[in-house]
Every structure is written in C-alpha cells, then in structure tokens.
Specification:
Elements: E1 5-9, H1 16-37, E2 39-43, H2 49-55, E3 62-65, H3 82-88, E4 92-95, H4 98-104, H5 108-120, E5 124-129, H6 133-137, H7 141-152, H8 158-163, E6 165-168, H9 182-200, H10 202-207, E7 209-213, H11 221-225, E8 232-235, H12 242-255
Parallel strand pairs: 1-2, 1-8, 2-3, 3-4, 4-5, 5-6, 6-7, 7-8
Helix pairs in contact: 1-2, 1-12, 5-7, 7-9
Amino acid sequence: MRKPIIAGNWKMYKTGPEGAALAAAVAKAIGELAGRRAEVVLCPPFTALEAVAGAVAGAPVKLGAQNVHWEKDGPYTGEVSPAMLRAIGCTYAIVGHSERRQYFGETDEGVNKRARAALAFDLTPIVCVGERLEDRKDGRTADVVSRQVRAAVAGLSPEEVRQVVVAYEPVWAIGTGVAATAGDAQEVAAIIRGQLAQSAGPDAAAQVRIQYGGSVKPENIADFMSLPDVDGALVGGASLKADSFAAIVTAGVAAKR
C-alpha cells in the first residue's frame, strides 16, 4: 500500500520566526499517530527552511523546499542548489509548480532537470502537473497532463520513477476556492498513472504516489483521499494555519484506511 503524503506549500508567506511557530504548532497538532500513518511535509520559503528544520526536529514532520536548481553550485544568482537543501535538512523539493511555470517561465525540460537533480541528492521531487481552464474547456486535459508527466520523468530509470511524487494541481483550482470534483481528480490521476506506466512500466507506476492540490480543505480532503489513485494532497492556503492543516492530515489519514 502506498503511504499517504500530505504536504503544505507555504508559498511566499512566513518569516523564519513565524514559520518556526507554525511548524511547531503543526507538529503538536498532528500528533504521533497521524505522523506514523502518513508522511507530513512542510515546504516553507527558502529563508524559513532552517528555522522550520529546528522546529520540527524529532517530530513526525519532514522538510521540503518550494523549488531546486539542477546544479550543485555555480554562477546562478538567486537559485538554491540540491546540495544546499540537503545540508539544511530537506528531504523533499517541489518542482514545476504552476506558479513557477506561469510567472517565471519554467519549462517541461527545466522541470525534468530539477527532478533529476533532486533525485541525485536524495531529495524526493514533488512534480506538479495540471491544466489551465482553457485547456479543460477545449478538452485537452489529458494531452496537457500526459505531456507534462512524460517530460518530467524522461530519462529516469523505473527505480527513480518509483521515488517521484506527482501532484495534480488543476491551475484553475489553485487559490480560487473552487476545487476539482472527486471524479475529475480520479480521472486525471488515472491518466497520470497510465502515462507513468508507459514511461517506466506498470510496476513503477503502481508505486508512485499521486497528490491532489487545488483549494484543499478539511471539508473536502476525505473525498480526494478516498479515491483509488490519489494518495495525498499538496495544500496551499489551508496549510498556513496549524488547526486547518492538522485537520486535513487527520481526516485524510482516516479516509485512506
């Protein structure tokens, strides 16, 4: 059975001290039981990573970054390398988030390079894929998502693909308060798993954990976690409050029993 994974993406919110306080509150709220039955990951801004690492030391909470460069070091002003993230204590890194694609011009090729670099430094990449509203209206969801998945895992061995987490985040649902239906999420998650099977074989595809992201709340997490191909959630706004994020973790774990 694939172990559920629920990650909080704090985006460009929380200073170091604010992040440490939130992380400590999350660790206390979820308790040991939820931590044993699911992987809980917090992804604060780069400037808060070290403070959050200290706050969750010894707790069943893992540390993730919101992005990662593909080189170990070099003249890349404004970037952070996988080696730096590992040194701080990260074990996860988000790559290819739609906001990175939309606002900063990240490409499918770049997502692949970042995912490969993450794996090379024992970071688990959370690869984000998802269609825009116009793609969905035009009936291109399957084509867009399949292309993104295929590009993200290009050149990876089946063993490497097994280690990847894929987050399906329909762009039209991120931060809008409008979540995809459970049926929509399962349909696309099945498409993702099917593409992974084509790229890396059915055995590897069966082990990849797929998250849903996009206006996830305590009220709807059970609907998504009960789906056969959804193994977790990538949570945005609701992860910025300890009680709401803990409620998502608790309800999500219960739904996946």
